[in-house]
Amino acid sequence: MSAVATPSGEPVGTSTAAQARVPVSGPAPQHGRRRTELLMLVFVIGVVLFAYANVGLGLNGKIPAGLFEYGIAFAVLIGGAHVAVRWLAPWADPLLLPLAALLNGLGIVMIYRLQQSGRAGNTGSVISTMTTSTTLYQVLWSAFGLAAFVAVLAFIRQPRTLQRYTYTLGAIGLALFAIPALLPASMSEINGAKVWILLGGFEIQPGEFAKLALAVFFAGYLVAKRDVLALAGRRVLGIDLPRARDLGPVLIAWAVSLLVLVFESDIGTSALFFGMFVVMLYIATQRTSWLLIGFLLFVFGALAASRLFSHVGERFTIWLHPFDHVHTTAFQLVQGLYGLGFGGILGRGLGQGQPYYTPLVQSDLIITAFGEELGLTGLMALLIIYGLIVQRGLRAAIAVRDPFSKLLAGGLAFVIALQVFVIVGGTTRLIPLTGITTPFLSQGGSSLVASWMLIAILMRISDTARRPAPQPIQDEGMTQVVRAG
Amino acid sequence: MNRALRRVSLACLVMFVLLLVNVNWLQGFDAASLASEPGNGRTFSEQFQFQRGSIVTADQKVIAESRLNKNLGEYQRHYPFGPMYAPITGYDSLFSATGIEQAQNKQLSGSDPALAVHNLIDLVTGKPKKGATVQLTINSAAQQAAFTALAAQGRQAGVVALNPQTGAVLALASYPSFDPNQLATLNGSKLIKNDRRLLRDPNQPLLNRALNDTFPPGSTFKIVTSSAAMTDQGITQNTPVYAPTRLKLPGVAQPLVNFDGEACDNGSNPTGNGKVPLIFAFTVSCNTVFGNLGMQLGGAKLKQQATLYGMNNPRLAIPLPVTQSNFPLYTDKAQTAGAAIGQESDTVTPLQEAMLAAAVANKGTLMRPYMVDKVTAPDLTPLSTTQPTVLSHPVSPTVAGQLTSMMISVTQSPQGTAHATADVPGIVIAAKTGTAQTGINNSGLDDAVFTCFAPAANPQIAVGVVVKGGGLGADASAPIAVKIIQAYLAAVGK
Description:
Chain A is mainly alpha-helical. Chain A is built from 16 helices and four strands. Helix content of chain A is 64%, strand content 3%. In chain A, helix 9 (248-264) runs antiparallel to helix 10. By secondary structure, chain B is an alpha+beta fold. Chain B is 39% helix and 16% strand. Chain B has helices spanning 2-29, 31-35, 41-47, 86-89, 99-103, 105-109, 116-125, 140-153, 188-200, 209-212, 222-233, 278-284, 287-297, 299-308, 333-340, 350-361, 397-412, 419-422, 473-476, 478-492, and strands at residues 55-56, 62-69, 74-78, 133-136, 157-162, 169-175, 240-242, 246-247, 256-257, 275-277, 366-367, 372-376, 382-385, 390-392, 430-436, 447-454, 461-467. In chain B, the strands form five sheets. In chain B, strands 3-2-1-4-12-13 form a six-stranded mixed sheet, with no helix packed on it. A five-stranded antiparallel sheet of chain B has the order 6-5-17-16-15. At the A-B interface, helix 10, helix 13, helix 14 and helix 15 of A face helix 1, helix 2 and helix 3 of B.
């Protein structure tokens, strides 16, 4: 499939195509939809500051200290990102930045709320896994995240710049994955998950960045090999199976994810990584058989792992019979469920629930704290925000013309959806609970920075997709602009 | 690639829809059942933010109440009478609840739908939320007498007193008991320590012996056998019945004998092979007579009669769950004979003992036992009142009258087994004693069983007592019943 052929006849792609075909006379509009973005960002700052004030009122009836200062700081950070987008990616989707900023801001508010529990005379009990500077760190990491966001936009001016580093990034991704497994436990293990690099008080989760590097690698690799991988082998039950010799990549991806599972005890990341690969393979080849093969491999791997490794099997037991293990292995899950139930339809109100009962509520189970204090209403709103981010990402994938960008945007958008599904589904007992971060909300720097980088890549791709074709230099009707793609 | 991307979008949509549906189910529909999970700390600590309703006796003595602990800013449960009412109130601890605290939790905690309007009004008017008051049928004088008497004799025992006309429980005591205040502490580690100590106590103080421990009924079961014989064979208290000194049992070497191997002789049966009137056999409690009647009736008829008296009921709740009293279907003749005198696999709770006497006292109609009289909202409007209901009709009024005469004879006749212990001035008590042999080859200490009602002419109270290892029912159990009857009749002025 050539790049030119793709958008033709595709209804969604037509808007940009039409724009390109009819050259706009006069200078191109300065701000794609940047005014909309700015308006949404003002709204985001308002919501976040209101939530912050609400936490203080809920905890001890007072407006929390530093509302003004934090408000300024948050506005400056977000405003800076907005200015950078105006400069670096003026045609980018106007919703992605506000949506991500809202999640990040609400995450900080919730972490502040959890940190204040039982401290400074507030109700509740102190969450021992948090210190009085946890929120400050989260704010600093957010600043880092936004800086990384701007840096990605600044250094990657064309999505295809990344394509050049396909194999380099593939190697970096694998290395990032492998480091925690190779490091001694003292430098890599927290709460049984060996997925960290612990250096001088810093906790880095390299898997979060590996996810991005590997997405780029998969996109580059699959774009190069997709014609071969799409070749049909035998036809069984109406499905064209791939040729046996082409099974190599999927088996390697499968093996790597299993290794992550075994050596790092990280079921969530393993599933995320494999799911991303299979779906990108499917997008690249349009062969349903790859989905089927991937799904079967996943089921087989999961079943085998649950038999062979007690910590995997345990997850299934907890999932099926949580109330039989309330005081032991299922304690965290059940406390999260109690929190959700306690929240009910409208929630207890920020600062007025008891999320401190749930272990590690500030990281993996933060969604239950939102469910408890903002209720079903707030939780659904959060899920819809994630849904919109995914939708905007997929929209960019469909709109962009070059297959590498298409594949990368599709893979990244899907991985957000999958990550939200795995962690929210896990905490709400839809599927077995596996510990991964909730993008933008969970406490933790790596996830936050990586998520902002992911948004930056999606915005870069959407900017490319929506950018009008360059003005023809001579308007003689003879010269055709050959669009890149 | 766009076709695949659209399908991926659809897959993402499905994932989000699944998540949305699931959280709707969890927070919208499942929230109530999550809240009622035992060990849900959130619901629990919420309940300590407001005043839980009190539990009071019929004569308005507060036996469980919530008091504000000023240091913690939380309400703590307090049981003013300690162990005396423990088998009734149960306890409401950080981790679990038992007794009325558990059975009436919705009313006490104010989460009952009937309280929704009250709660809403309180919310609007800014009044703090408060649970409903549960008023029991328990009479404090009878309860005090029951617990004091059990504690004085010192053995494991259970006792229940009923109002035979309504089924209302007047007293319910178990010994040894525990102090529920020890489990109402808001200090988690102290609670765990106290709970462990009580669980490890070999005397099982947490066991409610009045409702949840079973004993062989012994000779008190002769009320059931007599009922079946009078109903089925049409015999009366005066009908002469076969009264051998030793009753040969088919297929068993050892014959059935009376207490200490005595003859069943009222002066007209010197050979030990003749007949005596049924009332005489009942008064002195001849095993051979009732063993023989049991064999004539057969296991099925005995079982039917026992079931009518309330046995074999796995679902009785008052509202505390009551352990089933058993009378299985016996097909072997020798076993049937033993079962007819309350041995073999027959088991009863002290409540069941009280129900035997209560049914006879109420002219053959057994009322369903109950303990909660009414529930009152914090503003004193009544929310619900229990109406007495009939559980069954074990015998006709005529048969009940005959049984009453026989039970009066047990205390009033000089030969009666309870004449020495239950013939008290001013009150005619109708009773039946039981001395149940336990252990292999009856090697264990006999359990003392006693069932009675008083006053015989106008029954106000029926009592069932079982003292484990108490020996003769008349000696160990009868005095306890007498004390309860005297205390209750004095309290209600009859």
